[in-house]
Amino acid sequence: MENRIHLPALRPGNRKREYLEYSKIDRARVVYAYLTRDVSTRILDDEILCVPHNYKGYKSWSILAYLGIRKDFRNLFHDYTEQEVLDAFVEAGPAYQNIVKVLRLEEIAPWDE
Length: 113
Fold this sequence. Notes:
Helix 2 (24-36) packs antiparallel against helix 3 (41-49) and helix 3 crosses helix 4. The chain has 6 helices and no strands.
């Protein structure tokens, strides 16, 4: 994609329990799906994390919130390839390095430590 996207500011949370509960692959899949699809976190819980419906999207939302990804990121990259999404976060600078690491399946340093 030639068009540059203005990335919203990250607003990371400090609750890491749900984030750490899932594998790097599951976390990356949740992040990528939220960035590229117009789906609720309830659907992400069901399709990716395979958790019961009574969690109401809380598990996926907790992963996203820990990284600072809020509602303004939902479906922001709907016509972008995986590489284009990654490139956009790399180009956005160091403030987005944890998103880059998650998408690359790398470990991140917790925000609150």
